[in-house]
Amino acid sequence: MIEVILDTETTGLSADKDRIVEIACIELSNHIPTKNIFHTFINPETKVSADAFSVHGYSDEFLLNKPKFKEIVKNFLDFIKDKKLVIHNADFDLGFLNNELRRLNVKPILKSDVVDTLQIARSKFPGVGNSLDALCKRYKINVEAREKHSALVDCHLLSKVYIELIDKKELTLDLELSNKGDNHQMRLNNENRQGIIVPISPEKFEEYKKFLKKNVPNAFALD
After folding, report:
1. What's the CATH number where 64 sits?
2. Does any domain span residue 188?
3. Which is more confidently placed, 38 or 195?
4. CA distances from 172 to 22, 87, 169, 193 (A)
């Protein structure tokens, strides 16, 4: 199963008036990050608000020579094509992304193609804070790299939170497949390893999906 963790940073909080300044995507294969990453800063063609600057630290000067959304949209859409998106507070990011796509007369991203980890967290921990920071603290995930908000850093953190939210123990594995004819060698980094993923049949995987649907509401956000 291929999924994509996605996050954005913006010039402000209004999807109608503000624009995207950063997009990051990390591909997951069976819940483990692959080496496929999409990341870009974007010239928003508008000013960054003071509040947004205090959050991510991207100045107008820094963004001035970055590509515009229309210049990166094809590569972005190619990267996420036919993959389930995993987003924390999906309404926010989708609002910005779909407004950008609308400006270019491009079809929007459907909410049915998205897993919202905020909704999963709220179903598991009702009545308490479920921000990304709060979830990292709850699951004892190191956030030292997060001095400022960064779409790429937040994607890495969310990939760890997501595994915990769907009750699949976090595996800090460094998977490298080297092709030698028909032979595949897999190297596992044992540092902080809590388990090993082994191949399963399509039938067993479908059983696993049914289990998640029954026990973790909105785990796959299927129609």
Report:
1. 3.30.420.10
2. no
3. 38
4. 26, 21, 10, 6
Burial grade of 190 (CB within 10 A; 0-12, 13-18, 19 or more): exposed
pLDDT digits 0-9 by tens, 136-161: 999 999 998 777 889 999 999 999 99
Q: Count the alpha carbons within 13 Å of 4 in the hemisphere toward its beta carbon.
A: 22
Structural domain count of the chain: 1
Structure tokens at 117: 């980890």
pLDDT(169) > 70:
no
Q: Supply the angle between the helices 90-103 and 69-80 in degrees, to the nearest 10.
A: 120
In whole angstroms, give the CA distance from residue 52 to residue 3.
Answer: 28
Q: Is residue 91 part of a domain?
A: yes
Residues that are catalytic: 149
- State which residues form the domain around 107: 2-168
In a domain, 48, yes or no: yes
What are the tens digits of pLDDT across the range 62-100? 999 999 999 999 999 999 999 999 999 999 999 999 999
Residue 212 inside a domain? The answer is no
